[in-house]
Amino acid sequence: MDAKREAARRALGLEDAMLLLECREEFHVAGGPGGQHRNKTASAVRLTHLPTGLVANATERRSQAQNRGAALERLRERLAALSFVPKVRRPTRATRGSQERRLSEKRRRAQHKAGRRRGHEE
């Protein structure tokens, strides 16, 4: 996983043309709304980033060039998500003062509720 993360981080620094060189670019018929032009031409674009295996697809436009740009944007988003490293969470303990404050608040709240209970019976 670290090798893919490093490849994604490196690929994010590349310009679009260099990033496209690392990808396998496939064109296929998109289908859907857009008329005959969209349904008969191979305007849909699928980019596969070979070092990481990430795939981005764009089919919504009738222009192959516009779909390539959209697929490249999606690929960059996926590369950014893959290269993100979450901060390590270390367990912490509550301080004595915060524990005492919490417990005293719980006692006060319990007394308040108990007072309502007694008042209801009378």
List the helices and strands and how they pair.
Layout: H1 2-12, H2 16-21, E1 23-28, H3 35-40, E2 44-49, E3 55-58, H4 64-83, H5 96-121
Helix pairs in contact: 1-4
Could you give a quick summary of the protein structure above?
β2 and β3 form a beta hairpin. Strands 1-2-3 form a three-stranded antiparallel β-sheet. The chain has helices spanning 2-12, 16-21, 35-40, 64-83, 96-121, and strands at 23-28, 44-49, 55-58.
Notes on the structure:
Helix 1 packs across helix 4. The N and C termini lie far apart (68 Å). This protein has 122 residues and is α+β, with helices and mostly antiparallel strands. It has a three-stranded antiparallel β-sheet with strand order 1-2-3. The chain has a domain at 2-83: Double Stranded RNA Binding Domain (2-Layer Sandwich). 57% of the residues lie in helices and 13% in strands. The protein contains five helices and three strands.
Order of H and E elements: HHEHEEHH
The assigned structural class equals: alpha+beta
Q: How large is the radius of gyration?
A: 29 Å
Strand runs, count: 3
Query: Main β-sheet, in a few words?
Result: 3 strands, antiparallel
Mean pLDDT: 89
Strand order of the largest sheet: 1-2-3
Strand content: 5-15%
CATH architect. name of the domain at 2-83: 2-Layer Sandwich
Global geometry:
elongated
- How many H/I helices? 5
CATH class of the domain at 2-83: Alpha Beta
Topology-level CATH name of the domain at 2-83:
Double Stranded RNA Binding Domain
* Low-confidence parts: none
How far from one another are the termini? Answer: 68 Å
